[in-house]
């Protein structure tokens, strides 16, 4: 039979992971707040908004009530944009049963604004204690995973005893998970790399060339390491799959939402225009840059790249001025 698996969030990554597991033969339930998405998945085996022209497994069934997907699940995938993690956790918390253990894998990336809590910390704070949290992150562009392009990923948790089962459940011929204990480390990597990807997207939008992008990516890795050091993360995590591996993939690929956002900013479009054009898709770096910069300023951590990207996006600083200022600080 295998474990019962549910996914909270039918965006691109939630749908991809749900389909990956359904294709392995698991019966997977996925929750979406949009009834049209539920109907598309159940009736046509597709998610038009996030995976157009892609056929989903018949083992993937969609629902729009938490009561239908949470109580009997053994493993849950939590695939909600970071800005909505606390609110969503508060909504699902009462639905968990008290007489059984759950394993929840979060793929949300970011720091909560003002509290500076990682997504796993927010979930532990809100959800019942019988829900054991893990985080998954890596160079995992949703479309490529859906197409079964080979990649590695990392699953991490302070509950190391749950990791062997999670690795076994997620592993396929093309999707290779590795288990580590540094949960905070992979979450910091997942948040900071999105900011760097926006910066590289701006470089591409301005036709600045590969030398500029190489310099920006190197600076992004340094900033990832500086933040991680403050959180007590293992340095080797930042030079592994979830760190530099994800950084390279997100910064280099046209499939990256954050890279795309940077390119669109470079064209002179506003934040509001890009959000509308992305049709519900989220560039996490847009919100991560706010919380990470605030955290860095309060703890006197020097993050020049993060500061300039924040000012470009949220204060409408001219990009050429920002690049000039950045070069004096590197």
Describe this protein with a few key phrases.
Rossmann fold, 2 domains, eight-stranded mixed β-sheet, N-(1-d-carboxylethyl)-l-norvaline Dehydrogenase, domain 2, 330 residues, single chain, alpha/beta
Concise structural overview:
With 330 residues, this protein is an alpha/beta fold. The chain has helices spanning 12-23, 35-44, 66-69, 85-92, 119-126, 142-146, 163-170, 183-205, 210-230, 235-238, 241-252, 257-266, 271-277, 285-298, 304-314, 319-329, and strands at residues 5-8, 28-31, 60-63, 75-78, 102-106, 131-137, 151-156, 175-180.
Describe the model.
There is one protein chain. This protein has 330 residues and is an alpha/beta fold. The chain has 2 domains: 5-181, Rossmann fold (3-Layer(aba) Sandwich); 185-329, N-(1-d-carboxylethyl)-l-norvaline Dehydrogenase, domain 2 (Orthogonal Bundle). It has helices at residues 12-23, 35-44, 66-69, 85-92, 119-126, 142-146, 163-170, 183-205, 210-230, 235-238, 241-252, 257-266, 271-277, 285-298, 304-314, 319-329, and strands at 5-8, 28-31, 60-63, 75-78, 102-106, 131-137, 151-156, 175-180. Strands 3-2-1-4-5-6-7-8 form an 8-stranded mixed β-sheet, with helices on both faces. Helix 7 links the parallel strand 7 (151-156) and strand 8 (175-180). The longest helix has 23 residues, at 183-205.
